[in-house]
Amino acid sequence: MEIRYTAIPAERLAAMREAGEDEFGNKWQPRVAEGWEPLRCCLRKASVDEDIALICYTPWDEPSPWMEAGPVFVHHEACAGYPDTGEYPALFRHNKAILNPFDHSGARAYDHITFLGPEDDHLAALANVLSQPDVAYVHVRSGSAGCFHFLAT
Ligand SMILES: [Zn+2]
Questions:
Q1: What one-character-per-residue DSSP string does the chain give?
Q2: d(CA 44, ligand 1 centre) in Å
Q3: Å from CA of 82 to ligand 1 middle
Q4: Per-residue pLDDT reduced to its tens digit, 129-146
């Protein structure tokens, strides 16, 4: 199966930069990266001294009772995004992860929630969850902090 990996949409980030705040009213302000921060705009790790921002983000773009919002790092200025949409982002392939699946009505598909360890085959596990008929899409999250990594469809 072909899986598509989607970072935070560039248009939403552009609107936040333009507004000077994230979608929850937090000021869009630069901070200097220490070099460990996972960036959700381009799905790679920040380099030391890069200008990044810490924002609150929700992967939903319309109201939903399932909506979860939380802190993510992104580039302070526009970046190239994540163009390899057919490739499981390498940065998130050997960590503790939660595959948080949703059904076609947008409700959480509880039966298919999957917890992964660093040694697990993330790609095989994700393919398995997405192949379930009642799963429409998956939010891949950090297994240790819970924060959003990317959308998989
Ligand atoms: Zn970026």
A1: ----EE-S-HHHHHHHHHHTB-TTS-B---EE--S-PEETTTTEEPPTT-EEEEEEE-S-SS--TT---EEEEEESS-------TTS--GGGSSS-EEEEEE-TTS-B-GGG-EEE-TTS-HHHHHHHHHTSTT--EEEEEETTT--EEEEE-
A2: 7
A3: 8
A4: 999 999 999 999 999 999
